[in-house]
Amino acid sequence: MSAARGSGPDELRGGSVIAGIGVAHPGAVSQDEVWSGFFAGHYSGAANALAKRIFGNAGVVRRHAAVNPLLEDATGWSTERRMRRYLAEAMPLGKEAVGRALADAGVAPAEVGLFAVCSCTGYVTPGLDILLARDLGMSPETRRLFIGHMGCYAALPGLGVAADFVAQHGRPAVLLCVELTSLHVQPSTIDVEQIVAHALFSDAAAAVVLLPSGSPGYEVRDARSVTDTTSADHMTWDVTDLGFRMGLSSRVPEVLSRYVGPLTRQLLDPHGLDLTDVDGWAVHPGGPRILSVVEQELKLPANALAASRATLAEHGNCSSPTVLLILAALRGEAAPARNVVALAFGPGLTLYGVLLRRAAAP
User: Fold this and answer.
1) Whole-structure pTM value
2) What's the CATH code, domain 1-362?
């Protein structure tokens, strides 16, 4: 196995702060309802018992679906039809999330200098970055960036790009992550990877507004990543005639266990911090096993990942917006954490980490 290559030091010295967060969800359905009302009939024979066990152990209690399988069976939809629906559903969700984040930060749309959008569950041109900037009233001079193909970890490199822009230019930036995994329900199969994906994934939009240091919020202090390309086939997202098909190997937690400790130390050491100084963890809940591996490898105290588990239970795995949902939950606690480490994982196989520090109003 060839050595994984990590990023070098890239501390964000100019200073940028997450000053606003906004989230939006389509309609909710309970995991039990979606199992009994759709997937119990979707899987037959030996696959049914296996799927029932996987759905029951997914750690998901409630999820959100722009295409609710209790109302619409999308398994036979063409990719073209799914993409048309993506545009129809992603636009209002994205607009709602960004609008809430801007209001939370006290920033007018016309003030935004950079608008970055992350999504891997749909493709439209002109893209969401252009259409939402238009509908929200952003300036024609607003810089735009669309980030695709990164999957569940996309929010963190997106956050790094937005923070770099704010630090360099001293202007507000907005990052939106929107994913509609419900569009990509697949035909019945005995493939365990497909069953796991159907049991875990959900829909959401989440946005953050970043401002120059001096504003209250969470300052983006550092970002690190590591990619093990020898495990590139462990997590895939293939375009088919019937939507996008997830590949999710059971070996993902094993690979992550080798890198999460070293990468987290690389994130903390330059700032004179160790694991005991971190009082907030925003760990992407790729599934219960992922959270258990992180907990074990970092030797975290009980309940350190409570926000991640609660987000998985309440919203499911929403792909790229999920880590932002967890940050919103941490920020809303009665005693917000001072030092937060955000970790997310995705294709590559890639592990990405960001260090945040709470900044009070000057």
Assistant:
1) 0.94
2) 3.40.47.10
